[in-house]
Amino acid sequence: MEFLRAKKNFFRLEWIVKILIFISLCIALASPIVVDRDNPYNREGKDIVLAIDASGSMNSSGFDVEDELSSGKRLSRFELTKVIAAKFINKRLGDNVGVVIYGDFAFIASPITYEKEIVVQMLSYTNQGMAGQNTAIGEGIAMSVRAFETSIAKSKIIVLLSDGEHNSGSISPKDAIKLANEKNIKIYTIAIGNEGEADEALLEMIAKEANGEFFRAATANELKSVYAEIDKLESSKIKSRDFALKEYYYEIFLLLGSMLLLYLIHREIKR
Question: Which of 10, 194, 208, 210 could form a disulfide bond with 187, CB atoms 3.0-4.6 angstroms apart?
């Protein structure tokens, strides 16, 4: 209120500085910000569904020949696949990812989402055999296609992994491929395990018919390399979540007010 008193000479240097201090501190307390609503998460990306075989054969051990991921534990193909898939998911910074588990039937373990931590957590809850002991590849593809129902991404991709032959389910792989093609969804297929265990001819045909690519991985290290190769796929813009970047500028006015205050104190000391 000192500034409102009458008969003050406001044109004196000391009072001008005091007024500037007062204004600067008021602005600093108001905490001015600049809000940038450009969404940094609307990056070049794609929607990806990992369709993972959870049939009885995925319980086999010995997949991690070099013992780089098992750390001395006797991990099954399914457990090792989860470890490698989780790392792949966490690397997809600009993508939305979902997980489908299939055996005798298929189900969506995690819907397509940008929240990678949730996808990895849901993947960790899955177990070999929870969808049955047989291999319904057609069901896995069809359920993966269903997972894209709310997708608005231009690039939609299914990464289908299997170590067995199609021997179950009410949907044939050919019918499932048609569903994928109608939605413009690419399918990349991975045959894992020893040669001859997976139906490589079928998986290669699926990839060819669905404009994807076929890969083969005999060991866990090779599977890591396959996912690294898929990691280089083309991208397209997607919308993930709203984001507002806020830049705070109160420090500038606080610093200005503090410097002017120090100047006044210095003047008082010299008197």
Answer: 210
